[in-house]
Amino acid sequence: MTELDDRYLDPAVETMPREELERLQESRILQLVPYVYQRSPLVRELWEKHGVTPDDIKSLADFKAKVPFMDKDMIRDFRDRNGDPFGGLACVGPPHMRGVGFTSGTTGDPTPLPRPEDNAVLITLKRELWHMGMRPGDHLTYLLFTFREGMIGDRWMDTGFTPICVQHSPLDIPYLVQISKEYRPKSLFMISTPMILGLEQYEKNTGENIKEAFSSYEGIVFGGEPMSPHIRKLMDRWEFPVYELTSLGDVATATECSAHDGMHTWEDVALIEHLDPDGNTDAEDGARGEMVVTALLDDVAPLIRFRTDDLIEFTRKTCVCGRTHGRMKPLGRKGDELVVNGKSILPIDIFPFIGDFPETRTGLFQIIRPQRETETLKLRVGYDADALQDGEDALKARIKERINAELGLPSDIELMSNEEMVKLGPPNKIPRVSKS
Amino acid sequence: MTDSSLQKTTLLPLTIGRFRNTDGGFTTLPFSLVEQDRARRYALRVLNTFHFRTGSNILLTSTFDETLQFMPFERAVMTYGMVVVSADSTPWDGKRVESIARRFDLTAAAGISKNVVDGLNQLGFKIEELLSGIPVWAKQDAYDDLKALPGMQVYRYLEAGPLVGFECSQGNGVHIDRFEWNIDEIDGEIVASSRLPRCVEFNNFRTGLKAHIDRSACNCGNTDPRIIPE
C-alpha cells in the first residue's frame, strides 16, 4: 500500500504544487461559469449589464479579466428589488437546497447562506484540526458560536473525530469544563473573548484549575475578532495552544497552522484574489490588499468575484508547514477605515491596548465614524463600573493619554457600561465601527 | 482475504449530545448514526400528519448543543423536501428571527422557547404577529403562554431526559417512538427504558416529568403512545 503523509489530512491537495492548483481552480471555474450564468438571477443580470457571457471565459485569466465583481450592496439591492431573500444568488431550490444559515448580521440584516445536504466548507477546518493533532477516535469540543448554520454535529464522519456539541455561552462554562475533564478532547473549536472572560470568572468563583482541566487540548481555535492583550495573557497563563481563525469572505474559514504565520486560505475551495485597495489590479505578494473570493465548491449559491471589503495581507509563498495554499492576515474592513488627520485607523489598531485598563479589560469599543475623514478619533468604550479606580472623567483622561501615546492622535471618549455595549450587536460580537 | 486483513471493531458514536438532569445539571449522551436515523424516521412519521407542501420553509430555533433534541427533526424536515431556516433560540437572536419571518414564506416554526419570545419582545416584536396561523412547536417553557395567544396554532415540543418528541397535527399529546422506548407512568412520573442497542442504554430511567400516558390510537393514525404533561 502507498504510505500517506500522516502530517496532512489530504496530502495530495494540501501540498499541491502551485501550477497544479491553478489548473484545478481553472477546471472548477470553467464548470462554474455556465452554471451560474444559467441559474443565478443576480449573476445573469450583472454579467448582461457588463456584456459578458460564458463564451467569453475560456481560462482562469479570462475569468479574472472579464467577469464583473459583485458586493454585499448589490446582493441586498437585488433582494429588495425582487423580494428574493437570497439576493439573486441561489442557483437551485429544494430539495437540493436543504437549509438556510446566515451571516452574523453585524452590519445589517443578516445575509442568508443557503446550503445543500452536505457542506464542503468544513473541509478547511478538518485539515487544520488534523494538523493540530486530531486523529480518528479523538474528541473535538465543538463550541461553534451559533446554531444558525443548522445541526452539523454529524458532518465529521469522514474524519473519525467525535464532536461534543456545546453552547457558545458564558453560562455554559461549567459544562465546557465538565466535558473537557470527562472526555479529554484533543481540539476545541472555537473560543472567543466572551468565553475566555467567562472562564476567568469561573476560575475566580470556583477555584477550578483551568490549566489542568484543559490540559488535553493540543489545539484551541480562537476567533470572532482580534485577540486583546488581556485575553492573550489569560490564555498564555492557562497554556492554551491557540490558533487564530478568521472568515474567508463568507465562503469558508481560514485558520493558522503551527507556524502561526498567517491563516491558510484553501484555494481549492475558494479562488482568492488580492487587489490593490485603491483599484482593481493585483496587489503585490505580501502587501495589503482587498480580498475578493469566488466559491469553487458551492453549487447552491456561490459567490462569484465577491468583493469582501476585507483588507488583508496575503502571500502565496509556501508555508513552513509544507502546505502550498495562500496565507492571509486580516487587517479590517475597507469600509471601516477612518482617516484621522491623515492617519489610517482600523479597529485592529485599537485592540492591542484598549483592554489594558482594569475598567476596560473586556476590550469592548466602537470607533465612531460619521464620515471617512475626521480630525479627532472618537471612541465609545465599554467599562465595568464596579472596577472604576478614580471616576469616569479620570478613566477618560487615561484612555486619551494612552491613545495619544500609541497613535499620536487627539481623541474624544464616550464611556458606556459593558452591559449596554453588548446590546449593540449580535451575540458574541459587536460592530467595531459605528456611524454615531 | 486472509484472517490478518480483517479486524472486528466497534464503531464510534456519531456525536455527543446532552440532556438535562432532574437536578438541573447535564448528562452527556453519545449517540450513533443508527440512533440518529431511527429518531429521524420517528420525526418524519409525526411530520407527515401535517401534509406540508414540499419545498416550503420551516423556521427552526435551537442552540448548538441541542443535537440530541433537534438534529433528527432537522434531518426529517430535509428528508420531507422542505427547507430548514435556522436561528439561535437565545434572547439575543430576536433580530434574525424577525428578519426570517419577514423575508421567508414560513410554513411552520419549531423549537420556540421562552428565550425566543423574550428576545422578540425586547425588540418590540410580537410573536403572535410574526408566526400567526402556522403550526408552531413550542418548548415546555413557552407552551402555555403561546397557547393562550389568539391566532396561534401551538403544539408541544417535549424533552424529558433522553426522551424527545413532538405533537402531531391532532395536538393531543406528544408521540414517543414505541420501537425505541418503553415508557411507563410511575407515581405520576414518566419512566423510560430503551428497547434497542444504543451507545448508552436506559433501564427504568426516571425522567422527572410529571405526566400521564395515553396508549389509545391517535386520530392522526399513529399508534405511538402519547405523553400528556400535567
From TrEMBL, chain A:
Keywords: Ligase. InterPro entries: AMP-bd_C_sf (IPR045851), ANL_N_sf (IPR042099). It comes from the Bacteria. One of its GO terms (molecular function) is ligase activity. PANTHER family: BLR5969 PROTEIN. This is Phenylacetate--CoA ligase. It comes from Spongiibacter thalassae.
From TrEMBL, chain B:
Gene3D superfamilies: N-terminal domain of ligase-like. InterPro entries: ANL_N_sf. This is Uncharacterized protein. It comes from Spongiibacter thalassae.
